[in-house]
Structures are given as structure tokens and as C-alpha cells.
Amino acid sequence: MKNRRDFVKILSIGGLAAALPTSLSAQNLTKNKRKSLNFGICADIHKDIMHDADSRLKAFVDEAKEKNLDFIIQLGDFCRPYDHNLDFMSIWNSYPGKKYHVIGNHDMDGGFTREQVVEYWNSEGKYYSFDCNGYHFIVLDGNDKDPSPNRPKGYARYIGKEQLEWLEKDLAETQLPTIVFCHQGLDNDLGGIYNGTESRLVLEQANEQAGFQKVQFVFSGHHHQNYHNNINGIHYIQINSMSYQWLGDDFKHIRYSEAVDKSHPWIKYTVPYKDPIWAYAEISTDNTFRLFGKKTEFVGPSPKDLGVDMSKYGYPIVPYISDRKIEI
Q: At residue 60, what are phi and psi to the nearest 5 degrees?
């Protein structure tokens, strides 16, 4: 990685012209072979906070079973590896098709390691890649420890050197258009990946080296919001939480009942969504991307009703995932 900038400089001077025909041929070849792509995507259900997480997950899985999807994926803050969460896992595992996991920062709460979470979920790994219908998919782990003494306080939100080197190598070894998943946003400096610029640079340089827009989308959860950013041709799409937005101690409010508050005391610090929300992504053979999102309403008073300072969140707090259409 230390020679990446020099490599890109050489490529931009003369190498790109030589490499371009090969890259474009590979791109055209994958286009000819590509099928339509459909997958279900959800994020931040927070089994260990929400009293009705099981029914929320079941609603997603049951509907996914009825659709002709290539796979489903959850973007982290799913559940901790407790024995009492096995029934919750059985709901996820009842989906008969391919299913993938992304590690969230809260999945290790209680002193668990990422390795324990991966084993409990029967996941592919902390970070990994796979191919489907002419697309390459990369799952990143945004929970590496930042070695810098000036690292931000709180949960780890970093992609380390070893993982970035793996990412660079993985991208170099595919000619397929690529979609990336990470729990924390690579495009969000309000609690997202701390070295987001460095991480995005790997993706952008892979595109420059390939001679075409190889990396097309990056999906994230974590922020419990609903937005889309385009940075240097790569679309960064935030998938809202299935369950809630965190408001904190200043706005705590019992929204269900005294019994629910007693058994699940963290809910009062949130503004829950009445129904679970998730999305379906579709890429057609004509290179049109569509996202179909669920919509609901808040349980109890909204953040606006409570006087929440929205500027601290950057993006609006909303109980839905927007439909999107992007030509790629």
C-alpha cells in the first residue's frame, strides 16, 4: 500500500491508455454475462435492546422467503452470542437461501470477541468477499482498533492496515462490478469510519486502475439514518435501522409500558419505529439500480416533538428508507 500513490501517478501518465482496452473488454464481457440482481438488506435490529426484535426479524425473513432474491444480508448490530439469543438466530437461519452478515460495533458488547460473534452467527468471517450474478461483493469489518494515540474515544471504528491491504488485493483480483458492505459509514465523519478517506481512496484507486467504475456502491448501517452520497462516482447508501434512533438520557420516554421498560430498559432512550423497516435492492440488466424501502411512523412523540437538536445528527431522523433509482 505504501507505493499506491506512485503506482496511480505512473498509471495516470501512460499506463492507463495501455490498460484501458483490456479493462473495457473485461467490463463488456461481464455486462454480457450479467443477470439481474436482487437482494434483501436490513440493519441495526438490536436484538439486545428491542423487546420485539424477534417479530421484526421474522417479518423481514418471511417476506424475503416470498420473493425471488439472490441473497439477504444484515449490516450489523444484530445480536450478541448469548445462548438466550439462539431462538432469534433460528429465525434468521430459517431463510432457505444465501444469507450474509456484517459485524456491528454492538455485537461484541458484554465482552465478546469478533471471532466469537463470527462463530455464533456461522458467518464467512470478519471480512470476506463473494460473487453473485456477475457482481463481486465485499464485506468489511469496521471494528479494527486504531493504533493512533489520538484515536477517538468510544467504540472502535477503523479499518486497519491488514484489512486495507486485503481489500486492495481482493479488488485487484476481480474484473466484476463491485458492491461493498460495512457497518459504519465510510462517508460519514459523525461517528463513521475514522479513516474513511483512506478507505475510500482504496476503492477509488481500484476504479482508476481498472479503467472503469468497478466499485459502484457502498452500503452501511450504524447511523440509523436515511441518505445517499455520491463521492467520486461511488454511491454511498445508508440503510436505516430496523428498529429505532438513539436519543439519549435527555429525551428518555417510556413508549410501550412499564413492563417493557423493566425488561428492556434501554428502549426509553430511543425513538422506536412502529413497524420494522428494511429494503430490497435490484440491479437490472440495463444497469439501473433501484432500492425499495419500507416506511412506518414513530412510536410516541417524535424527535421534533421532543425538541431534539437535529444538527447533532447531520441527517434527519426519519422512520423510513427512501426508494431510490440510480443509473449506473
A: -65, -50
The Cα–Cα gap between 225 and 241 comes to: 7
Number of residues written out for the chain: 328
Encoded amino acid at 175, one letter: Q
Per-domain boundaries in the chain: 4-327
Q: Collapsing DSSP states into helix, strand and coil, what is residue 212?
A: coil
Kindly calculate the radius of gyration of the chain based on its CA atoms and give it in whole angstroms: 20
CA distances to 26, 55, 79, 103, 104 from 118, in Å:
34, 23, 11, 8, 11
What pTM did the predictor assign? Answer: 0.90
Q: Say which amino acid occupies 284.
A: S
- pLDDT tens, position by position, 207-266: 999 999 999 999 999 999 999 999 999 999 999 999 999 999 999 999 999 999 999 999
Closest CA to 289 of 205, 210, 188, 218: 218
Angstrom distance (rounded) from CA 154 to CA 50: 22
Q: Which of 291, 301, 298 is nearest to 318 (CA)?
A: 298
Amino acid found at 171: L
Position 15, amino acid: G
Cβ partners under 8 Å of residue 263, min gap 6: 51
Q: How far is CA 191 from the centre of its chain?
A: 14
Instruction: State the amino acid at position 97 in one-letter form.
Output: G
Q: What is the SS3 string spanning 226-278?
A: CCEEEECCEEEEECCCCCEEECCHHHCCCCCCHHHHHHCCCHHHEEEECCCCC
CA distance 36 to 195: 33
Q: Domain 4-327 belongs to what topology?
A: Purple Acid Phosphatase; chain A, domain 2 (3.60.21)
